[in-house]
Structure formats: structure tokens, C-alpha cells
Amino acid sequence: MKFGKRLKQQIEETLPAWRDKFLSYKELKKLVRLISSAESPEFGKADAGAEFMYLLNNEIDKFNAFFMEQEEDFIIRHKELQQRIKRVIDTWGPGGTKPSEAEYKDEMAKVRKDMVDFHGEMVLLVNYSNINYTGLAKILKKYDKRTGGLLRLPFIQKVLQQPFFVTDLVSKLVKECENTIDQVFPVEVEAEIVKEQREAITVAGKGIFRNTVAALLSMQEIRRGSSTFGHFSLPPLDLPDSDLIHSFQLNSPITTV
Amino acid sequence: MKARPALSIQISGASNMGVSEGLSSSLPAISTPLEDTYRKLPGTQQISAKRELMGRPLVRATYSSSNSGVVGHIFSSSSGFSSDLHYSSSSPHEKHSRNAPFISQAPTNGAASPLLQSSNRMMPQSMMSSQYYKENSGSWCTDPGFPDFPISTPVQSCQVESTNCSGIMTSEDLCKSNEWQEWAEQLITDDDALASDWNELLVVDNVMDMEPKVAKPCTSTTLSEQKPQVHQRPPSLSVASRSVVNSSSSANNAPAKPRMRWTPELHEAFVEAVNQLGGSERATPKGVLKIMKVEGLTIYHVKSHLQKYRTARYRPESSEGSLERKSTSTEDLSSLDLKAGMGITEALRLQMEVQKRLHEQLEIQRNLQLRIEEQGRYLQMMFEKQKSGLDKLKASPSSSENPQELPAKGEPEASQTNHVNSGTDTANVKSTLERSSEEMGGEQEAPKTTETGVSKSSSPPSKRPRIE
């Protein structure tokens, strides 16, 4: 139940709009248990398998729909941000139509914040994709284990081709975003100061940042090593700077209505 | 998942499964006759049919109530697992129709699930718009006031009559007046749809995308708003949705739910077209569609995309995301402040760092997962070849020749997979398998060399789970 718990945590902490878009892992697990224990003649293994597949397909549809919609939004927003930056530079920048350092700084700060949040949201979508995939893989493994079925392998192959799993485009946007940020907001050498400030940093609120930290921590936990480690298990997470991540103490989630 | 209303689930033949407990569907019992009809529908996508099943009893029950009432009822009750909806309607007997398409109803379900899951969201609206497409047969119109669930009767008859798109097409026209048509749309499946790439399909729920974010409760007024739009739908829609707007292809049977995957290039073309027409406010979907001249792009795709585009442009502050952002932005600020009193800049930098880290790890994880599955595929293949080789061995007297072919076949596969490269050079199939599985076992730190055991004894496939 470790994964299930982690997933639940992530769902609780995720952006409200995303809450119901995740894998219904618990339900599916219950189903697997029911299937394995209630093998009545009327409801043969093939039937159970079909039912199960049906549900999984539904879940996948759900993921795909949500993912592609978000992706579309991201494409639009990405372009808009780029244009917005240009506009700000052209208007209030040094060589702009109405240069004003104050305005420029002000607007740029806003843009920067928006960009960073945008970046975070995209990364969270990739995380969404990944955690759902992981859940699917796990539930399939459970199914096969419990019922002796051979559902997993072919099914997972198909999953790999699903739009929600093919996160290339979003990753590309993420990288482009990073590049833009690095270019427009060059990082000054603040390494020293940063290290000093890396004491317990409380991350409150339900913002993007909090979500990302939660996701990272989750991932680390999930991959810490499992009792059923096997051929198809992922190795423990290799997080350099994991102390950084751990220095973020997450406040208890603020329950949102 | 929240509690569900105590609508009894009845799946013929599956009632003893007790699944209902686990999944407490919010749908009422499915009537058997529906199932039968359902089963007969050749090209029908399970989901749609299932929806029907579920929808009908529900509709009947609430027929007298107003639409909004029904809707409200549905929504509040379906606060759970969307699969419940489908699940309860499915029956073991239907497996044949269900198993086929992997993605099957794809968008349909995708669009439908939100509906079920959130009672206060746009769902209904999305559903409406998504229904847009799926024109239903004329017979659908006979049952007005379908709440969220796929219209059962009309769809049913429609589909029973003809599963080819032409039949559906005409019926679509007839149904235009049906306010709940949208729901029905999801059920429609063209023949063509079977062949088309579901990726191209676009769930028009995007159209109402912005609104939902305001958490508008679904009301009949909203529903009626959708109505007029439905009329626009050109009969040729589903045909158009066929062409691949996006390169990826997967098994796809849900024609009515064209879900399109936008790309930056496509978006560029879109922006170009919009600018040509004088800006996002002035541009019309039709005009944009015309200028873009992209095959497979439908007016619905453009419409929803345009809506998103407009919102993104004219609400730059909150456009970075749904309205939740507004409420969280203050929290963000406070969280920034809390970051050990760092300046905003520093806080942002830190945020970026964490985000980058997460992204990096996700990519690594994804690659690992891909490789793992690749390996699994390889193992499977090797196993099958081994098996077929052994069968041949048993069959033919000159057994020495056969094993030789297999290593050769195995090699190309092996070269594709990093891990197993080292273990597949031998000529003898058996030793090849043994060695490769041993090496893989070693590398993977998993002593699962059952492959060896398998190859030795040619044990039945049921032993395979161990390898997984």
C-alpha cells in the first residue's frame, strides 16, 4: 500500500483541478482482490480480465483526455508568455517605445513569476503522466500475480504508446521555458547566499512549488526499494542534493473545499 | 472516491462478483435487453454502448424531472470513479466487444469521466460540447432530457440499425434538436472511426474549458446554451476527423470523439490565421479553419482552441492556468515569503531548481520504465521463439537444423536492447536463453532466471508471471 498511500498524498496535494484525474488505484486494487477471491463459475477468469481491461481502458482514456487538454493549454500559454516578454521588453525596456525602468522591472518580475509557475505546472503534468503510468504498471502486476493472468505485458506495451505517456512535447516546452528563463533572467552568482539559506524552509500553501516538492519527495519514497523488487522494478532514486529537497518541510495540507 | 449513491449495480452474470461493493457504481441496474442489443453492435465501442445501458434506466427513472434536476442528480451521485459508470454497465458477455480496442472509446470516456466525477464542474458543459460531434441517430431525439449519461435508446437503435457512419450521419441531422445530444455523441461510433486514429479525435469539452474553471454548477441553462451550437455540426465531421492531424497512431475506435493533439507548429499556423483575420476577437472559427487548410482539422477543434486562445490572451494574469491559480497565487506569495525570508528572486530560483530536478528525475524514470518494458518484450519474444523452436524440434526429425534459426532471429532483437546484448551470441538457443536471462538477472539484481527453467522444461505460459 505504499504506492497507494503516496498516490493518495499526491492527489490530495495536487492542484484542485487535477484531483479527479488520477488513477483510481485503490479501487482497482480492490477489484483485483475481489476478482481473485471470488472466482465463481459464472464469472470466469476471462470475464474478469475483460472487465478489468475495460476499466483500465477507461482510466487511460481519462488520462489521455486530460493530458492532451493540458498540453494544448500549455502550447498556447507558452507562446503567449514568449510574446508577453517581448512586449514588455519592447515597451518598457531600455530600447522600447516608452522606456521605464520601474515598469520594466515590475512587469518583468510578474512575467518571471508566471514563467516559473508555468514551468512548474508543466513539470507537474509530466509527473502526473508518470505516476499514473507507474500505478497502471503496478496494478497490472498485481492482477497477473493474483489471477495468474498474462494481462500485463501486452497491455503495458500499449500504454507506452498512449498520448498521456508520450510526454515529449511537454518536456520540450519545459526545456524551452528553462532556456527562456535563463536568458531573460540571468542567474547571478548567488551560490554562497543560497547555501546559507538552505535551512528548514517551510513550504506552505497549495502552490505549484509545494506540489513539485511533494512530487519529488513522493517519487523518492516510492522508489526507495520495494519488497517485490524484480525485473521490472525501478532502482532507488538517485537524487543529488536530496538534502535540498528534504529541507523543504511540507506543512500539513490546507484542506480546500 | 467519495460515497456513491446506492444505486444498485447489476451486471448480468456478474452480480456475484460483488464488484459493486468495491466500485459502488452510481449507475442503476442495467437492463438485460439493452445488453443484448448492445452486444450486437458490431462496430460499437463498448463504452458508448455501456453508457447507453447505464443511461437508459437512469433516464427512465428521472424522465419526469427537469433536465437540470436530472443533471444535478446525476452529478452529485457520480462523484466517484468514473469507471463505475462503465463498469456497471459492462457485462461479462460483452467482453468480446470490449477487448478489441485498447483505447477504444478513448475520448468518449475521457470526456465522460469528468462528468461523473465532479458535480460542480464544467463536466456537464464539457460533456455537452463534447457531444457536439457525435451526431446521433434521429431516434435519439425521441428521448429528450437525457442527463449526463449516454442516451441509451436512441443510440441503441441507431447503432443497431447501422454502424456505418452514413447511417449515423443522417440520424445526426435529425437529432439536432435534442438538447442532450451531446451526451449521445459519445456513443456514436462510425465505421470509419474504427479505422481512424483516435489521437486525431478531439473532445470538444475544450470548448467549455474556461467556464468550468469557474466551477460553475451545471444547470439546464448551460445545457440549453449548448443546444444551438449543436446544429452547426456538419455531417461530414466524422469523416474529416479521420485524417491524422497528429502523427501518433494507436488503436482507435472512437470516431465520434475526435481528440486532437495540438502541436506548436499547428498552433503557429493557427495564430497566423487568426492574425490574418484581424485578431483573436475578430477571427471566426470558420475563417481560421479555411485559412489554415489543415486536413483533418475540424471547426470544433478550432473553436475550442480559439476559446482557449482568447482566454489566454485577455487574462494574462490568471491565464497561467485555471482559476485555482488565483486562489493559490496569494498562497504562493505567502509561501515565497516563508522561504526563509528570501527575496522573491531567490525564492523563484529555488523553485526553478526543484522543478528542474523533478523534471530531470521524471525523464530518467520514464526512460528506465521504457527500457524495462523493452526488456520484457524481448524476454517474451525469446520465450516464444524458444517455444516454437522446441515445438519444431518435437515435430521434425531433423531437429538439429531448427535451433540454429532461432539464435539468428534472436540476435537482431538482442542488439536493440542494451542489457541483453551480451548474452545472445551463442548458436544454441537454449544456452542463449539461459545465459541471457542469467545475465539480465544479474544486471537487474533480480534472481529471476525462470526463463532458464522455462526453456529447460518448456513450461506453459502461465509460469510467466514470475518473470515479470
* Most residues in contact, chain pair and counts: A-B, 131 and 121 residues
**Sheet with the most strands, sense and barrel status of chain B:** none
- H-E order of chain B: HHHHHHHHHHHHHHHHHHHHHHH
Structural class of chain A: mainly alpha
Low-confidence stretches of chain A: 198-202, 252-257
- Strand percentage of chain A lies at under 5%
From the structure above, extract its key features:
heterodimer; A: mainly alpha; 67% helix; elongated; disordered C terminus; B: 468 residues; mainly alpha; 23 helices
Can you tell me about this structure?
The complex is a heterodimer of chains A (257) and B (468). Chain A has 257 residues and is mainly α. Chain A is 67% helix and 2% strand. Chain A has a two-stranded parallel sheet. Chain A has helices at 2-13, 25-37, 45-92, 101-147, 152-160, 168-184, 191-196, 208-222, 242-246; strands at 201-203, 248-250. Chain A contains 9 helices and 2 strands, in the order αααααααβααβ. Chain B is mainly alpha-helical. In chain B, 58% of the residues lie in helices and 0% in strands. Chain B is built from 23 helices and no strands. Chain B has helices spanning 19-23, 32-40, 46-62, 67-77, 82-89, 95-99, 106-117, 123-131, 153-161, 165-175, 181-185, 191-195, 210-213, 220-231, 237-240, 264-276, 285-292, 299-314, 324-338, 344-395, 401-416, 429-444, 450-457. In chain B, helix 8 (123-131) packs parallel to helix 14 and helix 20 packs antiparallel against helix 21 (401-416). The chains are: A mainly alpha (257), B mainly alpha (468). The interface between A and B is large, with 131 and 121 residues.
What would a concise description of this structure say?
The complex is a heterodimer of chains A (257) and B (468). Chain A contains nine helices and two strands; from the N terminus they run αααααααβααβ.
